[in-house]
Amino acid sequence: MAQTVVAGIDGSEESKRALHWAAEYVTKVGGLVHAITVWHQPVQFGYRLPTPDTELEQRARKLLDETTESVKAEFPKVDIRPRLIRGHVIDELVGLSPQADMMVVGNKGHGAFTGMMVGSVALKLVHHARCPVLVVR
């Protein structure tokens, strides 16, 4: 049975590894990968920062395209579908989870024991997604 895998992409090396893992997995089991980048207008101290939405969206599109193109080059037969969504990352990824067989995200744990901890996005997905979640280290 073909799998639908959702990979969360934020431009980090960790998310690139997550997309790589998802593509490699799909080569073995069949299916497709939805590479998802979620962007939003940042808020600091209760105020939106002055960066125009179009600039933020363009930056998000660029990092999504760069990440997916590098993985597509290594896995040319895998159907990787990039998708840019405006919203809150947890809400959007959890919202996609019922249609996915698996979600894959990178680990960017912060703190004194970096690398041993799971980042906040990954942790919230593990608790709230309606499909299995794989956190790639």
Structure description:
The chain has 137 residues and is of the alpha/beta class. It is globular. The strands form 2 sheets. The protein has a 5-stranded parallel beta sheet with strand order 5-2-1-6-7, sandwiched between helices. Strands 3-4 form a two-stranded antiparallel sheet. Helix 1 packs across helix 2 and helix 3 packs parallel to helix 4. The longest helix has 22 residues. 41% of the residues lie in helices and 26% in strands. 33% of the residues are buried.
Runs in which pLDDT lies below 50 for 5 or more consecutive residues are: 110-117
Largest sheet: 5 strands, parallel
Quaternary organization: single chain
Strand content: 25-35%
| Helix amount | 40-55%
Q: How many beta-strand segments?
A: 7
Class computed from helices, strands and strand pairing: alpha/beta
Q: Which descriptor suits the 3D outline?
A: globular
Mean pLDDT: 87
Report strand order across the widest sheet. 5-2-1-6-7
Terminal Cα span: 27 Å
Helices and strands, in order, run as EHEEEHEHEHE
Rg value = 15 Å
What is the overall number of helices?
Answer: 4
